[in-house]
Amino acid sequence: MEDIITFNTIKQYCDFNNNKALHPLVGIIDLSKAELRQFTRFRYNFYVIFFKEIKCGDLRYGCNYYDYEEGTLVFLAPGQVIGENKPEYYQPKGFAMVFHPDFILGTSLGQRMQEYTFFNYEVNEALHLSIPERDMIKDVYAKVNHELEQLIDKHTKSLVISNIELFLNYCVRFYDRQFITRTNANQDIIARFEKLLNDYFHSDKAEKLGLPSVAYCAEQLFISPNYLGDMIKKETGKSPQEHIQLKLISIAKERIFDPSKSISEIAYELGFKYPQHFSKMFKKVTGTTPNDYRLMN
């Protein structure tokens, strides 16, 4: 088992990076104040948003190692592990916005956190900022830090949360821009997704493994399920699950034409445990049952 340094509190992380903890549940960390450190794996039990201002390669997540460009944002949800253990040393750079889940409990931000799906993207799906976007992000970081440097009063929490929510809403817009500017790369992923589904249903995988999940497809494409879902939705207007369903129905229609196969056999071949579930899905999508479709054609 590899060694992992775990941070449970904001103060622990502030102390680790030679920053003063201005608030027990939220902070802006200047990583350049940290001492030279060895490459290590870290687990954060709070939300972390890294802002990399220089080109560096000190973060690794899962199987992905990424050499960041200037002006990159990386989002981590509580419990995620990032980094790698190796003997070399490096000097941390950039900033990190950190906030504990307890800080946003019962707030509008807490209720919306599941909408910010990029907290579960892989590191190589980071957000690359343009120069104007960087300036906007720096401005929000500065406002949050300014609030934390004041004496804490009844307005502190609402103002900090409002700025974090503003920050995340900007990131939604910036990711939309990134999806558009990376259309060629996205189209390649979509093409590989379609091929993956074709190969899956035209092999014995469906019968052996069942219906393909979005998580399975994302793993085969070496991207996170959230990124796959958001990217495909932006590019096609349909979710990956809808694509899987439509591909399944398309192949089912071809096989229904074969009179030597029963509807139950076709259902099992396509990965259904129960033929009635196949018939229900088929009717929901086409408006008719598999048996009626066979008779119609």
In short:
With 297 residues, this protein is an alpha+beta fold.
What does this structure look like?
The chain has twelve helices and twelve strands. By secondary structure, it is of the alpha+beta class. The chain folds into two domains: 178 residues, Sandwich (Jelly Rolls), CATH 2.60.120.280; 103 residues, Arc Repressor Mutant, subunit A. Strands 2-11-5-8-12 form a five-stranded antiparallel β-sheet, with helices on both faces. It comes from Galbibacter orientalis DSM 19592.
Strand numbers in spatial order across the main sheet: 2-11-5-8-12
Distance between the termini: 59 Å
Count every helix, treating DSSP H or I runs of 4 or more residues as helices: 12
Q: List SSEs in N-to-C order.
A: EHEEEEEEEEEEHEHHHHHHHHHH
Low-confidence parts, pLDDT < 50 over ≥5 residues? 56-68
> How many individual domains?
2
Shape: elongated
Largest β-sheet summary? 5 strands, antiparallel
Number of DSSP-assigned strands: 12
Return the structural class. Answer: alpha+beta
Strand content: 15-25%
> Under CATH, the topology of the largest domain is which?
Jelly Rolls
CATH superfamily of the largest domain: Regulatory protein AraC
What is the fold's blueprint, element by element?
Elements: E1 4-7, H1 10-16, E2 26-30, E3 37-38, E4 41-44, E5 47-52, E6 56-61, E7 64-68, E8 72-76, E9 80-83, E10 89-90, E11 95-99, H2 108-112, E12 127-128, H3 131-149, H4 156-181, H5 183-201, H6 205-209, H7 214-220, H8 225-236, H9 240-256, H10 263-269, H11 275-286, H12 290-296
Parallel strand pairs: 1-4
Antiparallel strand pairs: 2-11, 3-10, 4-9, 5-8, 5-11, 6-7, 8-12
Helix pairs in contact: 3-4, 5-9, 9-11, 10-11
